[in-house]
Every structure is written in structure tokens, then in C-alpha cells.
Fold:
Amino acid sequence: MSDREFGGNDDLSLPKATVQKIISEILTTPSLNAGLDSSVTFARDARELLIECCVEFITLISSEANEIAEKEQKKTIAIEHVDRALRELGFPEYVREVLASAGDAKEMLKTREKKTSKMYQSGLTQEQLLEQQQALFRSATDKYNQAT
Structure:
């Protein structure tokens, strides 16, 4: 399966900086580089090929997971669909790591600080905020009337 089968999205890619960071981490991790010299570098064309392979892999897995979800009449692809897609496409060795990453991501979402709006961060009451807003409107109206 290729991008062309999915509507011809030739502009699909991954952030080069992210890919370079991953490559650098692998090249500097002794257990992952299996005795490679630490001065080994990754050629630009090799990085581009790796990016294309990653996009192709993601497209393949997501397409299969989508088909599985559709067969189950689900509108959302769930972790279980990705799990099954990996197994059905012959990548069972990735399932444990993928599930662990999904769990880590879920935990990060739980502990991540919820964004609060400027209104709540101001410490002002609704009435005080409304008063400030009306004062700003009056000021803008006065400036407008003086200019005309």
C-alpha cells in the first residue's frame, strides 16, 4: 500500500528535526547502536528515505486499523484497532512497545496541567471583568468619536 492509494498525498511527511533527534538518540545509545562507532552520521538522503518509510508504515498501519474499526462499525480508531492491525500485518513484536507508549501518553494527559483561560487567571470576578470590558468599549467609542 502506498500514499497514492490514499488520495495521492505526496505532501505527507514527518518533521525533519524530530526524525533527526530520534536518529541522534539511537546513534548515541550504546545498547541500540550495537558497537557502531559514535562518530557515525546519517546521510541526508538516508534520512529522507527513512522518513518516507516511516510515513509508509504509519499509512499502512492506520489504513488497516481503519478497516478493522469500520468492520466493527466504529467511527473512532481505538488502541485495540492499532493492536490488531499490527498483529494482522505481521508486526506482533511492536505491540508491547506501542501499548506501553499509549499508556504513557494516557498518563501524561491525566497529569498535564489543564489550560485555564485568562479570565480565570485574572483573579477578578465576573462583575469586575464586565466593568473593565465596558470601560474599554467606552474608551474606544470616545476615541472614535474624537477622530470623526
Observations:
- The mean pLDDT is 84.
- Residues 44-71 form the longest helix (28 residues).
- The chain has seven helices and no strands.
